[in-house]
Design brief:
- With 626 residues, the chain is an alpha/beta fold.
- Helices cover 22% and strands 27% of the residues.
- It is built from 12 helices and 35 strands.
- Helix 4 packs parallel to helix 6 and helix 9 packs parallel to helix 10.
Length: 626
């Protein structure tokens, strides 16, 4: 069977760009065997989920099952109806990373309409292992009869509700922060100025509180050199970039890497065009001294109370050969030495890892530190193309009370991928944030700005860059999705849903603010990236009933779809080439916002009713002022 657990083709540093096919081929050869998923200790063999049901809908199939204690996720399998069990293969939604999903439901839009399939689901106790698929249930998508299917949603504005968790606010990802000092240009725009502006916009408009980036120890910030064989520390440029971050109102998540050249055991082992050195240190004591000196300097400069609220993360994706030239055991030593060096300054400081790709090495780190005694205040890992797995059972298994901080996450691990510029990537973001709310402490989208040059600077305005904001400062649909999330209130309200696509294809997040006003967010989404440009068969019409409202309230609707907030549609309409003309820049900036439009609901004895068209992909925010 195909497991779908390991990354099938890419990592977060693989390029899909067609600018240089030979460079891409060389890069893929360097990746080699990207992930080491060997388990460090026995993990439980979990039974498959029970209660699997398949609901056939227009253009999709909705699967649901019962949760399994100890599972961090589930893997969905499919085969043509009547096939042998050994012909079941994991359903690929083309996210190019971990296929296991954290939720107890899945929307499959990858099948052929009218074709019947056998489905089964397996439990996943760790990314290194999955169980046997369980009972087989048969179903398939159907064609819509009689127009666009309808979904009914009901919200009680007076319900008690519960606290609404906001995993998007604690952190955002960024290009290495030395780029804040860069006076060079891309597309005629000054890189450092625009990167700072993008980070400021995420702080001011979305409420993001921290930023995580690679390479604070890279030689372009000059933190370490050896003179006459003796180490010299210099944090002048670190101060400059952190001062700029702090002036925005952000704080750094300090990713401790990569290796300074004079401290590297093999300075020729590098990653990215800026040549971050990925080898272990040649002198472990000097590495520890550098970490302790940096952390002590930060405490002295920014104050104990401030820095005690920061996270110190050890390295980046050491389970990938491109990011770590040593073995796993050597990285575990790096973790121990680094964590000890951080805690030597103040034991209250927060340190964590493994900062791994594809949710790997979490079990291994917890198993190792249980023996070594090194602290793990928070667990970090990364996935793309899917909602984050649920690591709470893993922490429970090891008796850990560490926080869970997903320090990289996005719609694709591939550079220069067209999906990054689509509205589908925005509904993906909404889906992931909704799934993650309440089960992890932060979900950091990767990254803030298209001023991002791991594999080279952007060649044109819309190039499939990781950024939420383009070169030139125009918000992509994914930024607008974060903005819509920021408009939700502090109390989450229950939503009753029924109809073709309810609580699956069509998702919702309803909220109430302290003043009694409401924010209700709806979106139409599938993980299937072959539907990134949309599928008319998946369009839905939503009847939203809001009980407990009387006449006289003000209702506004903000839309995010191909006609609202989609820079790709607007750029195509304007005829933008590789880079906009001055006039086109002005037109793009003038349209760089979502507009809330007033609507008039119908009223019933119970409240208000709105009818909303919801293409796939799209989102709608309904705001009610009382």
């Amino acid at each position: 069977m195909s497991t779908g657990i390991e990354r099938p083709e890419g990592t977060d540093c693989e390029s899909d760009t067609d600018r240089d096919p030979k460079a891409r081929e060389d890069w893929e050869q360097r990746i080699g065997n990207r992930s080491d998923h060997r388990a460090a200790a026995p993990v439980p063999t979990l039974p498959p989920p029970t209660g699997l049901t398949v609901t056939q809908g227009a253009g999709h199939v909705l699967l649901r099952w019962q949760p399994v204690q100890g599972a961090i996720g589930y893997l969905v399998f499919r085969a043509p109806a009547g096939a042998r069990r050994d012909e079941l293969t994991s359903v690929d939604h083309f996210g190019r990373d971990v296929l296991a999903i954290p939720d107890v439901w899945y929307v499959d839009t990858t099948g052929d309409p009218g074709v019947v399939y056998d489905y089964a689901v397996a439990s996943v106790p760790t990314v290194a292992k999955y169980g046997e698929p369980g009972e087989v249930v048969t179903g398939g998508s159907v064609k819509a009869e009689g127009g666009v299917p309808q979904v009914e949603l009901a919200v009680d504005a007076t319900a008690d509700g519960e606290r609404l968790c906001r995993p998007w606010q604690p952190m955002i990802g960024s290009e290495r922060l030395s780029q804040l000092l860069c006076t060079g240009t891309t597309g005629g725009k000054v890189i450092g100025t625009e990167l700072e502006t993008a980070l400021r916009r995420l702080h001011d408009e979305v409420g993001v509180r921290a930023v995580r980036a690679h390479s604070i120890l890279h030689d372009d910030l000059g933190v370490y050199r050896e003179i006459d064989g003796e180490p010299v520390h210099d944090f002048t440029l670190v101060d400059e970039v952190y001062d700029r971050i702090m002036a925005i109102g952000l704080r750094p998540c300090v990713e401790l890497g990569f290796m300074p050249r004079d401290l590297a055991s093999d300075p020729d082992k590098t990653v990215f065009e800026y040549r971050g050195i990925v080898s272990p240190p040649k002198n472990w004591d000097r590495w520890a001294d550098l970490i302790t000196a940096l952390v002590r300097h930060l405490m002295d400069r920014y104050g104990e109370d401030e820095v005690l609220g920061w996270e110190f993360e050890v390295w980046n994706e050491a389970n990938l050969g491109v990011f770590w030239s040593g073995t796993r055991d050597v990285w575990m030593r790096l973790y121990d030495v680094t964590a000890t060096a951080v805690k030597a300054v103040d034991p209250r400081l927060a340190v964590g890892g493994p900062s791994s790709a594809a949710a790997a090495w979490v079990d291994e780190l917890l198993e190792h530190t249980a023996r070594s005694g090194a602290p793990v205040d928070f667990v970090t890992t990364h996935t793309y193309g899917n909602a984050p797995l649920d690591l709470r059972p893993t922490l429970e298994r090891y008796g850990s009370n560490a926080r869970i901080v997903w320090t990289e996450w996005g719609v694709t691990p591939s550079h220069f991928h067209p999906v990054n510029d689509t509205v589908s990537s925005a509904t993906f973001l909404l889906h992931g944030m909704r799934s993650a709310a309440g089960r992890l402490d932060a979900l950091s989208y990767w990254v803030a700005s298209d001023h991002f040059e791991e594999l080279g600077r952007p060649p044109r305005l819309l190039h499939g860059g990781f950024g939420l904001i383009t070169v030139g400062g125009i918000a992509k649909a994914r930024f607008h999705a974060l903005y819509l999330l920021s408009r939700l209130g502090g109390t989450q309200l229950p939503v009753a849903a029924q109809g073709d696509g309810a609580d699956g294809l069509v998702q919702s997040w309803a909220s109430r603010h302290d003043d009694g006003s409401l924010g209700i967010l709806l979106w139409n989404h599938t993980l299937d990236q072959e539907k990134a440009e949309g599928d008319a068969a998946l369009a839905r019409r939503v009847e939203l009933r809001i009980d407990g409202l009387g006449e006289g309230v003000t209702v506004r609707v903000t839309r995010l779809d191909a006609e609202h907030g989609d820079v790709t549609t607007l750029a195509a309409r304007l005829g933008v080439g590789e880079w906009p003309t001055d006039e086109q820049w002005d037109q793009l900036r003038a349209a760089d916002r979502l507009v809330a439009e007033p609507v008039s609901p119908e009223y019933t004895e119970d409240g208000a009713v709105l009818m909303l068209d919801l293409p796939q992909p799209s989102a709608v925010l309904v705001e009610v002022s009382v």
